[in-house]
Amino acid sequence: MKRQSSSAPTGDPGVPISLPPDLGLTAHEGVFRQLRDRILFGGIRPGTAVTLRGLAEDLGVSPMPVREAVRRLIAAGALELQDNRRVVVPPMSRERFDEILFARRALEPELAARALAHLTAAHIDAIEDIDDAIDRAMKGGDTESYMRGNFQFHFAIYERAGADTLLALVESIWLQFGPFMRMAYGRIGTSVLEDHHEFAIAAMRARNVADLKAAIDADIGQGMGFIGDAVLSRKHPI
Amino acid sequence: MKRQSSSAPTGDPGVPISLPPDLGLTAHEGVFRQLRDRILFGGIRPGTAVTLRGLAEDLGVSPMPVREAVRRLIAAGALELQDNRRVVVPPMSRERFDEILFARRALEPELAARALAHLTAAHIDAIEDIDDAIDRAMKGGDTESYMRGNFQFHFAIYERAGADTLLALVESIWLQFGPFMRMAYGRIGTSVLEDHHEFAIAAMRARNVADLKAAIDADIGQGMGFIGDAVLSRKHPI
DNA sequence: GTGACGCCATTGTGATCACAAATTTCCCGC
DNA sequence: GCGGGAAATTTGTGATCACAATGGCGTCAC
């Protein structure tokens, strides 16, 4: 599926700014991934409006592919279309936070369990490398790298389950609490975190399903507890 | 949010066919609901291609709002965009079916449990009315009404939980197995069904959370078992 | 100084046009 | 009769234009 001829009918040189040049995917798919990453890793603050034309200019495309990407993200719950037709990252509430926590604990340990049989030693080594990078980012206070690493750690496991339908549900959930991870880490810092990734890696090496599910569950509880404390304690929950 | 002026620039009378005249929602929202219902209640056979222009003509709008509605449904997993750019209802596989079953059992009993506290006697009466309608449809062999009733029964309960995030996940899941319900009932008929709705109603009246969760879980197991037997036993799974 | 009213820019929505890829159709050659 | 390739149609994708609604901003009255 090649990209269109990028004719750039206007007189300007037509240089896309932050979108990778081509890569053989459609414009709207590229915009979607770019936008998804921004949301997932805290690039968009909750409450601030996102405009189609603004994003289109940012990414060097027409508003059209942006519309489709935004529509997808709205369907995933990552963005919200307000009554005034403003598009924003929806605010977090105690109720919504609780639902997200429940869904994560209901789905992610199962996904990890299903992945275990398909994980080779090489896979586990790669996952441990990701965890090492997370540790370095944590020590260095690099919030962005920490969040990217944490996402990679979890999904490197989940992807091996070969359960795309469940994976899509979990991705949708991550998109909904992603923006608030950034807010939490920004407020408190990453140095105080102690995740349960080591336990998960040990359980994977030991091929122990119960321990792996417990480690993932504990990691979710710890991480979400941290976010919940930081975000929901505010007077104006935003 | 009013609809646009519907100028109908072509010479034809411009009569929308199956879309309700206005109702104060955007065209793309109307198309979305129409299309969602078709998918949910078996109006679109898996594997058959859905074209943007074709649907637009059917619904009396331009291809534009159809694009957005289709994009939303693709994001929800209800439709699939193949490599050849064809849009279809994705086929069912044993693996995907198993994931859907797991997700339903993980989320729906919880949703029912959370709804219980908010259910008034009047709500339960209304739900029982829906179940009566289901029984009539079942006796009469009216597959369409049965499916609509079954959907209404479950979501009349789930909606009262006030858990929109979880509800959206469950809606996405229903969209994915809906088309195959029709296939199953079409092959075997609705008369042999015996759901667990009565037990669920009794548990709601008794305010018994555990029984309600058990009834919903049993209903899911029975219904999905029926669909699985009918759909996955085919030589060509489609 | 302060409030309200009106004007203008911005924004999402929908329609139409253009284009390339894919599919179908049709015709010719064997 | 039957396969194969070229032409024509169909289809998704992207861009541009038009429009109504919303928000922002300045101005004027008091």
Describe this structure in words.
Two copies of one chain form a homodimer. Chain A has 238 residues and is mostly helical. Helix content of chain A is 64%, strand content 3%. Chain A is built from nine helices and three strands; from the N terminus they run H-E-H-H-E-E-H-H-H-H-H-H. In chain A, strands 1-3-2 form a three-stranded antiparallel sheet. In chain A, strand 2 (80-81) and strand 3 (87-88) form a beta hairpin. In chain A, helix 2 packs across helix 3 and helix 4 packs across helix 7 (164-188). Mean pLDDT of chain A is 86; it is low at 1-19. The interface between A and B is medium-sized, with 31 and 31 residues. Chain A binds a DNA duplex (30 and 30 nucleotides) through helix 2 and helix 3.
